[in-house]
Amino acid sequence: MQSKYKVGLMRLNLLAGALLLALLAPRQPQLPGALLLWLGVVWLAVTAVLLEFSHRRPPLLPWQLMPGLLLAGLLWTAPERYALWLWLWPATLLLPQPAWTLVINLLLATLSWWALYPLLGPAQGLFAALALGVLAAMAIARRRQPQQLVVRQRVRLVPGLPLWPAHQLQADLSREQARCQREGVHGELLLLSVPRHQLWTTARALCHQLHEFENCYRLDSRTLAALLLSRDAAQAEQRRNALLADLPAPRRVRFVPLSATDALDIPASDFPHQLLTGDRELTHG
Amino acid sequence: MADGIPTTAGRFALAYVAGALLLAGYAAWHYLMGHYARILLPTLLALLLVVAAVLRLTVANRPRIPAYLTLIAGYLLLAMELPWLETSASLWVGLAPVLPVLLLPLAPALLLNAVMAPAWLLLSGEPLDGDLTLSYLAAMTLVPLALWEQRRQRALLLATDPRDADCQALSREGLHAHLASEFQRTELLHQPLAILVIHLPQVEMASEQFGNRARQALLDTLCREVSRCSRRHDFLGRQTPATFWLVLPDTSESGAQLVQQRILQALEPVVLLDTGPLRTHMGLCQRLPGESWQRLHRRLLEFTRRLEAQ
User: Fold this and answer.
1) What is the chain A residue with the closest CA to B25?
2) Of A2, A31, A125, A219, which one's alpha carbon is 20 to 30 angstroms from that of A225?
3) Judgement on whether residues B172 and B303 belong to the same structural domain of the protein
4) CA–CA separation, A82 vs B134, rounded Å?
5) Residue A185 sits in which domain range?
């Protein structure tokens, strides 16, 4: 499934949009209009560059509001030039987004219709509003519900990698603790703090080092965690050394045995502060 | 999921009816203004949209036909009215690239927009080298981005969510990935591994005879009872629409038989509304000592096929 979808075509479409706006921008007589168009160009180009097939960058809220704000700005500053873009509003409603940005987009759409109203006159203005309403209804019918929070907490962050969000660690940890105790297996929680810009490369390297049945977790923007399983303490020692030798120089590492229930009996989101603070460079639990 | 489909149909039907009302209002407007020649088209198109709304509600698995009807209605009205609109044509021509995106899937919408663009630009009556052409093309390029993003999100969710869409079990891909890793784990730790194959012969019949709800009840009951009878690290996955695998790590043959017995006992008193007593075929598959992953996997698939043919 993961290989079937190609981000490339969408990127091409984004860049084509940026190009057209860039052609349009120098032809604008007024400064605000041109400025907004250039902003649109930048937004589309940056989106195209950052676009990737993973949950690595969850859609940021201001990012989702940008198209609506730019469109409203253009229609407000120069209604006579961009009248036909009034019909872009249903498309902004079609974007996957939470309910409150949908409401803001609807309000902005109403506002830009109001900006156009003096040009249209009462009769056409009324018909335009009604037509816009019908199209908005279609867009809302077509809209997919944004992923519910529960779903988002359970998905892998990158297709094909056993890399999960922090919530998943909470669930997996107590299960693994019980299981290790039952099966007499030596389990360890690895906490790894790395510089922010190295997080994703380190996560990739770590995932490749793990057995297929071990999982890796992203706790925050600079902390990774992994559950390591070994037959006994001696094998665990070997694995620790092998792991540390292969990972790019990390800032801080800590291994906590799963049998240390006291230390681990806190929310997973507190692990980075509680278990990785102080000068415990390269200590082994 | 099962409830989502009728509401989507309802919302679309509502949108089509709103469109029909708008067109009827437009016809009435022409009547009031004395443009008697221009009344006929919007009236007919309003009727067409009502037909589309009815089709959308009654023919559940063919959403494309009412969508195309609506698109034709929009295109016809726009083509007929644009020459009359003079200066405000530059506003209304913007409807043309938006309609296909709202109504059609991504690829046909892109194609239709590209093919129709010259025609709409000519109809709008503005000079072709002006700003209008550029802003029309920009609108045409920007509108499909919403569909691209929808597509990306959906594909991403499918590729990263290990669970089945219909019930509380792993999807097929999730199950196979999980089973492969569990195989490695039990091998490394020298533990036994058992897989309980559970076939629900009523699933196919239930959805054909009683609809989605009966099928959902079957699946939900099975998942609930199985999760009650299993430990936290046992996991249930949906191998085929009607067959589940319950993976039991670190479980000997006798332990797995005990689980099977417990599930049978739990399901025995269940009587569902439409389908009656819940019937199951179950079988155990134990990993043989020294068996490779490929062999176990093949054996499991073979076993599942035989169980389903029973």
Assistant:
1) A127
2) A2
3) yes
4) 11
5) 158-276
Rounded to whole angstroms, how far apart are CA atoms B136 and B118? 10
Q: Are strands A223-230 and A186-193 parallel, antiparallel or unpaired?
A: antiparallel
Q: With a threshold of 0.95, tell me whether the complex ipTM lies above it.
A: no
Is the Cβ pair A24, B135 closer than 8 Å? Answer: yes
Q: How far is B310 from chain A (nearest CA, A)?
A: 32
The amino acid sitting at B119 is A
Domain identity same for B145 and B241? no
pLDDT per residue as tens, chain B (310 positions):
344 455 778 888 999 999 999 999 999 999 998 888 888 999 999 999 999 999 988 887 778 899 999 999 999 999 988 888 877 888 899 999 999 999 999 999 999 999 999 999 888 877 777 788 888 999 999 999 999 988 888 888 777 888 887 788 888 888 998 899 889 888 888 889 999 999 999 888 887 888 778 888 889 999 999 988 888 888 899 999 899 999 998 888 999 999 999 999 999 888 888 888 888 899 999 988 888 999 999 999 999 999 888 8
Q: Are B15 and A137 in contact (CB under 8 A)?
A: yes
What are φ and ψ of residue B282, in 5° steps? -125, 150
**CATH number of the domain bearing residue B243:** 3.30.70.270
Identify whether A114 is part of a domain. no
Q: Is B89 exposed, middle or buried (0-12, 13-18, 19+ CB in 10 A)?
A: buried
> What range does the domain containing B263 cover?
162-309
CATH number of residue A215's parent domain: 3.30.70.270
* Interface size, chain A vs chain B, as Cβ–Cβ contacts under 8 Å: 195
- In angstroms, the separation between the Cα of residue A111 and the nearest Cα of chain B is 16
